Amino acid sequence: DIVMTQSPDSLAVSLGERATINCTSSQSVLYSSRNKNYLAWYQQKPGQPPKLLIYWASTRESGVPDRFSGSGSETDFTLTISSLQAEDVAVYYCHQYDTTPWTFGQGTKVEIK
Amino acid sequence: EVQLVESGGGLVQPGGSLRLSCVASGFTVSSNYMNWVRQAPGKGLEWVSVIYSGGSAYYAESVKGRFTMSRDNSKNTIYLQMNSLRAADTAVYYCARDSFMADWGQGTLVTVSS
For residue B24, which of B92, B66, B77 has the smallest C-alpha distance? Predict the structure, then answer.
């Protein structure tokens, strides 16, 4: 199974500052022939289902603010919130959909400092 | 508009069974990958199963042999038959569309307890 490890487990960032979450996979999730990384990011707020933010590692879902961006390839990925807003307080998960069993990271809790 | 509505959760004793349903609207389930994902109270997300558009289904090791995912194209609905339930299966169960899960239902709570 591909193990997804996020860091940090939690972080506190001041409003308007940058938040960076890392995700490492135990093996590459790059599908070379398609040149696509099978990696997504989700945001989950309390009492709500997860919401897709980013897929193919860097493609922003429609309607997601452009302060959210994804980067990385093969085994190392990053979700960046360029200017943290109050409504961004949530838990964020990475997810690989390259190989079953599909797997999630353990989650990173983002709070306001 | 895409909508996913889960039902069928509830309280069940260890060793019991439940069948979850997820009714889809706004798209055709048979043309998409459909997933079940669960979240134990206060915990992270755990992928449970997927059914491909071709009909093949795959499972997490933790549920293999006990859970079966299926779909009814005429009802545009997917199911999760859960047998031999354990306390560790207690969770909110979500259905989600696509490999990168673009759309999610609100979830249904399954509690396994005596």
Answer: B77
Decide if A101 and B59 are in contact by the 8 Å CB cutoff.
yes
DSSP A98: S
* Surface-to-core class of residue B104, CB atoms within 10 Å of its CB (0-12 exposed, 13-18 middle, 19+ buried): buried
Concatenate the DSSP letters of all residues of A54-90 into one string: EETTTEEPTT--TTEEEEEETTEEEEEESS--GGG-E
Nearest residue on chain A to B51, judged by CA atoms?
A: A100
Write the pLDDT tens digit of every residue in B49-105: 999 999 999 999 999 999 999 999 999 999 999 999 999 999 999 999 999 999 999
Q: Cα separation of A15 and B88, whole Å?
A: 38
**Quick check: A95 and B46 in contact, CB under 8 A?**
no
| Cβ contacts of B39 within 8 Å, gap of 6 or more | B45, B46, B91, B92, B94, B107
